[in-house]
């Protein structure tokens, strides 16, 4: 048994509902491991669990991504052993990552390559796997294609930008400040649009000689949805990967026909890593790029676990760039 510090909630709401507790962590049961965390990922999806957008049983832990060292294994565990360096990400099945130590199913665990540090892993496992399926599964990209990438200076945005350049794509990134525009360009964006004072769709048309882009990656949602559709070329693909500004309201699908026979998808990471073989393939690709230096992971915000509320405030106010982690 070990004593751990954890962040939990017993009601949904703002960052103030996050509370720090001490709990006992017992020995793992069948199929479980006891894992000591070294670094924990901070993702925008965490705010959805906290505010009720993603309903969960209460009380409950927070966070779905972390990296650490296996301390003990339960009966039947064969994919990891004591002492293994591992990382994980998931959805409700991995809730509880905001902790110094925990019990977790062995199934989601991914062994860390030697060239990937704990902090890097915590900052990139969810974002990296998300970027991997966006780049390798969503659309048959070919060199010369153009993409519009919202939140280009965010954690996923910076990885997608770099990966897109490896594929020979042209990247148009949207940002909210001049500082974020510089960050986005430094990571591969060919053009940036400051949506605070520029008309996104109009500017996209100017940059593409009126044609529009092949694909839009939209993690913002409600406030950017129509501009994203208006930025696509005929038979282009709209990929809704988040709702940072709110849920997209119901709409008549006929609008997709009127705007050029557009395609639309709302993917979830869970459906692209459900198959262990596909998960291993995607993880191998992103870890390989990072280990080789072809894609770099910027950790621009580090927090202590007791500062979880402030971390959520910073995330929701769009003060952050790149990846954010808790250092244990």
Q: Can you offer a commentary on this structure?
A:
This protein is an alpha/beta fold. The protein contains nine helices and 16 strands. The protein folds into two domains: 2-126 and 273-327, Quinone Oxidoreductase, Chain A, domain 1; 139-266, Rossmann fold (3-Layer(aba) Sandwich). Strands 3, 5, 6, 7, 8, 15 and 16 form a seven-stranded mixed sheet that branches. A six-stranded parallel sheet has the order 11-10-9-12-13-14, with helices on both faces. Strand 12 (213-218), helix 6 (225-230) and strand 13 (232-240) form a beta-alpha-beta unit. Helix 2 (118-136) crosses helix 3 (155-166) and helix 2 (118-136) packs across helix 8 (276-291). The radius of gyration is 20 Å and the shape is globular. The two termini are 19 Å apart. The mean pLDDT is 96.
Briefly, what is this?
This protein is of the alpha/beta class and 328 residues long.
Q: Keywords, please?
A:
single chain; 328 residues; alpha/beta; Quinone Oxidoreductase, Chain A, domain 1; Rossmann fold; 2 domains; seven-stranded mixed β-sheet; six-stranded parallel β-sheet; 9 helices
Name the CATH superfamily assignment of the largest domain: Medium-chain alcohol dehydrogenases, catalytic domain
How many separate structural domains? 2
The percentage of residues in β strands lies in 25-35%
- Overall shape: it is globular
Report how far the terminal alpha carbons are from each other.
19 Å
How many strands in all?
16
> Sheet with the most strands?
7 strands, mixed
Rg estimate, integer Å: 20 Å
Number of helices: 9
The CATH topology annotation of the largest domain reads as Quinone Oxidoreductase, Chain A, domain 1
Mean pLDDT: 96
Which stretches are poorly predicted, pLDDT < 50 over at least 5 residues? Answer: none
Quickly give the structural class: alpha/beta
Q: Could you state the order of secondary-structure elements as H and E?
A: EEEHEEEEEHEHEHEHEHEHEHEHE
